[in-house]
From TrEMBL:
InterPro entries assigned: LD-transpeptidase_YkuD-like, LD_TPept_cat_dom, LD_TPept_scaffold_dom, Peptidoglycan-bd-like, PGBD-like_sf, PGBDSf, Transpep_catalytic_dom
GO molecular function: carboxypeptidase activity; transferase activity
Organism: Cellvibrio japonicus (strain Ueda107)
Pfam families: PG_binding_1, Scaffold, YkuD
UniProt-listed GO biological process terms: cell wall organization; peptidoglycan biosynthetic process; regulation of cell shape
Residue ranges, compositional bias (Low complexity): 136-150, 401-415
Similarity comment text for this entry: Belongs to the YkuD family.
PROSITE patterns reported in the protein's UniProt record: LD_TPASE
Protein name, UniProt field: Cell wall degradation protein
SUPFAM superfamilies with a match to the protein in the record: L,D-transpeptidase catalytic domain-like, PGBD-like
Keywords (A to Z) from UniProt: Cell shape, Cell wall biogenesis/degradation, Peptidoglycan synthesis, Transferase
Length: 746
């Protein structure tokens, strides 16, 4: 900025736009900005004026100038002589020689004028100066620090923005308006810092080319070039750089994909979840001087969600990107179910597969001497392999033929016919010692033992690795490689990499303003967690909506609990599930399930009197009871889907690994424990009071003294430590849709 010394007896307030921040008076700014006056201070003039004001005022208050005396007249005469000498000796103010601006300053001023001409049409109507302070406060939380650069006169109205490419011109215009249209990218260090930060967005699962990385790299060479013919190119590069900068901030703060446009069920209110993202990004971009200092990485770091899940996903993304670069992992060919203690070449492939992804850790070599003739015949096989060999009758050992063979202990639970593995029997076989087989039997089999590759034996360490994989993938934990486990193992490292990218964007949707106390329903993970002070204090399994009756995603607040609830059958279930039964004449379904038929007035009707082909305006309501669909309690919260959390009589379904069984509502295991936690701050409703109310069998609503936020969310990757990412089944097939939107170029 050009700093000019102002005349002490002039206003010195430059008011030309957009060059006010450069310190130029209005006439100078509106003319040729290549020169500026150096304004001399006039000390004698100042003293003269002070004396005129002070002594003159004293004269007036005293009743006339005669009372001031000779001293005043002498002082005034002397000061007048000094002023005449000063004016004759020094050139008049308007004749002072002009000091030229540096070429860089003049170039920035001209670029600023072009920015104003280009961006002003995108700005909304202006507000009066009386409202400037309020508007600036809305635009920036640090408006006090930015007020010194605020222009005198009208200021653009801050308008609502959405995460849309159509809003970028307005966002860029507001950004420059808050900076008085001063250019940003005027040094190579700044520009290079931006390029590096944009390239680093790949670590967030974003595509740097979405932010014009190649174009920015080309524009780098024009920074500092002040040739007149380059000015239009500099203007274009300035706007490209700022658009990329703001766009990256917006996407880091709010996610690249518009969740509401992607999911019709999405009902998260940003006014409730956190600051409006575009406004927050502009405020961050303008304040604290980080742009001019070149600390772009710091701005981007603050825009990311400050949450361990997000940092863990970023670390996982780097790891999986390295796995992809290294070639990923091998795939298992189709074939029969692989079971503990089997011998098959595919088991060596399985071992390599799980070693690459980290579930399998090779055991420390056992150097103990062989303890039996079977061990001697098997040579220096690892002890876990010797256990498998010793657990089976020698006659069950089959020699290899061709390129594949299988071997398993001869038991009905581990036969080679492809039936389900009995895990307990398989584990018993693995844990039995070699000495448990009779020595004579082992000796008789020595000559018939085939050459064994230890890597091809499904030993106990590999079984544990398989179980770990199954547990982390929400599969049935049986230690065997059946169709579901094989399919999960064969998902490529590249696909897992893209899955992490998808969930990074989901994390940007949600993680900025997670309340410290809340109930969080993890739909894809089939679990619910209650947080207090941002720490989990209770967890349980849940059953969620089926793939064709999905549980919706939204945020609300738990406001009351229903004990001994009745159940009003939703229209969808009535139409698709119950009416087909009743139209076949099976009215016993209503009696067996204690379901009443009601008319519009709530009066009970005789089911036999209704034409079930055209039942009309009826309601089916199930009585409260131990077999009621909603169990003993319902946790209610406002939403447009008639969805809630509730107890259920279907307790056995919680033993399944994947639990998408409901018609959209969330069935909670140990639901009464959650009810007690939610009512802990409600006077008169401790555990004993809840049990007493339940024992009456009467339906009762209990309003919470304090509402508790609840989030129903969907994500398909979890972080279990700083470097470990695990994956869930995409039960609603939403990942491909989000990935396509994430990869789309605007």
């Amino acid at each position: 900025m050009v700093v000019l010394r102002q005349p002490c007896c002039g206003s010195g307030i430059p008011d030309a736009e957009p060059l006010r921040s450069y310190g130029l008076p209005k006439k100078q700014a509106e003319g040729d900005p290549s020169t500026a006056l150096v304004l001399w201070q006039r000390p004698t003039c100042c003293v003269f004026v002070v004396c005129e004001v002070v002594v003159g005022s004293r004269m007036n208050l005293s009743g006339g100038w005669m009372r001031a005396g000779t001293l005043y007249r002498s002082l005034k005469t002397g000061l007048m002589l000094l002023v005449v000498v000063e004016l004759l000796w020094i050139k008049p103010l308007w004749a002072q020689s002009a000091v030229p601006l540096s070429p860089e300053q003049a170039y920035e001023i001209r670029l600023s004028q072009l920015l104003a001409e280009h961006l002003t049409p995108y700005l909304p109507p202006t507000v009066s100066p009386d409202n400037q302070q309020q508007t600036a406060a809305i635009s920036s939380p640090a408006s006090a620090s930015a007020s010194s650069d605020a222009p005198v006169g009208d200021k653009p109205v801050v308008s609502p923005l959405t995460n849309s490419a159509a809003d970028m011109p307005l966002a860029v215009a507001e950004f420059y308006a808050l900076r008085n249209f001063r250019p940003v990218w005027v040094s190579r260090d700044q520009y290079q810092a931006l390029i590096q930060a944009i390239a680093g967005l790949a670590e967030d699962g974003l595509e740097p080319e979405d932010y014009q990385l190649t174009r920015l790299q080309q524009g780098f060479f024009l920074v500092g070039d002040m040739a007149p013919e380059v000015l239009p190119l500099r203007l274009a590069d300035e706007l490209t750089a700022t658009t990329a900068y703001l766009r990256a901030l917006f996407h880091l703060y709010n996610g690249k994909v518009d969740a509401e446009g992607l999911h019709p069920q999405w009902q998260f209110s940003w006014s409730a979840m956190g600051p409006e993202p575009w406004r927050q990004a502009i405020a961050t971009a303008v304040t604290s001087g980080v742009v001019t200092s070149g600390a772009i990485d710091d701005v981007f770091a603050r825009a990311r969600p400050q949450h361990r899940i997000y940092s863990g996903l970023r670390a996982g993304l780097l790891r999986y990107r390295q796995l992809v670069d290294d070639g990923g992992w091998p795939a298992l060919e189709s074939g029969p179910t692989l079971k503990p203690c089997m011998i098959d070449p595919l088991i060596a492939v399985l071992r390599r597969r799980l070693a690459v992804s980290g579930e399998y850790q090779p055991p420390v070599a056992d150097q103990r001497p062989a303890s039996s003739s079977l061990d001697s015949a098997a040579g220096s096989l690892p002890p876990q392999v010797r256990k498998c060999l010793a657990a089976a009758p020698p006659a069950a050992i089959t020699s290899k033929t061709g390129t594949s063979s299988t071997y398993a202990p001869s038991s009905s639970a581990a036969s080679q016919q492809g039936e389900q593995v009995d895990v307990d029997n398989a584990q018993s076989a693995l844990l039995s010692s070699a000495s448990s087989s009779p020595a004579s039997t082992a000796d008789a089999s020595v000559s018939s033992l085939p050459a064994i590759n230890p890597d091809e034996v499904f030993d106990e360490y590999l079984v544990e690795a398989v179980k770990t994989f199954q547990r982390e993938q929400y599969l049935e934990v049986d230690g065997a490689i059946g169709p579901a486990t094989r399919a999960a193992l064969n998902v490529s490292a590249k696909t897992r990499l893209e899955q992490i990218r998808v969930n990074l964007d989901r994390a940007r949707w949600l993680l900025h303003s997670i309340p410290p106390e809340m109930v969080l329903v993890d739909i894809a993970g089939f679990k619910v967690t209650y947080f207090k002070a941002s720490q989990p204090i209770w967890r349980s399994r849940v059953q969620v909506g089926m793939a064709y009756r999905t549980s919706p995603l939204f945020r609300s607040e738990v406001n009351y609990i229903t004990l001994n609830p009745t159940w009003t059958v939703p229209p969808t279930i009535l139409r698709k599930d119950i009416l087909p039964k009743l139209r076949k004449g099976d009215l016993s379904y209503l009696r067996d399930n204690r379901i009443r038929v009601l008319n519009r007035q709530g009066q009970e009707l005789d089911p036999a009197s209704i034409d079930w082909q055209r039942p009309g305006a009826i309601t089916l309501r199930q009585d409260a009871g131990p077999k009621a669909a909603l169990g003993k309690a319902v946790i209610r919260f406002p939403n447009s889907h008639a969805v809630y959390l509730h107890d259920t009589p279907h307790q056995r379904l919680f033993e399944k690994s994947q639990r998408a069984f409901s018609s959209g509502c969330i069935r909670v295991e140990r639901a009464l424990e959650l009810v007690q936690l939610l009512l802990s701050d409600t006077p008169g409703w401790d555990a004993a009071a809840i049990e007493k109310a339940l024992a009456t069998g009467n339906t009762r609503n209990v309003i919470l003294a304090r509402r508790v936020p609840i989030l129903l969310a969907y994500w398909t990757a979890d972080v279990i430590d700083e470097h470990k990412v695990v994956f869930k089944p995409d039960i609603y097939a939403r990942d491909p849709v989000l990935l396509a939107a994430l990869n789309r170029r605007d």
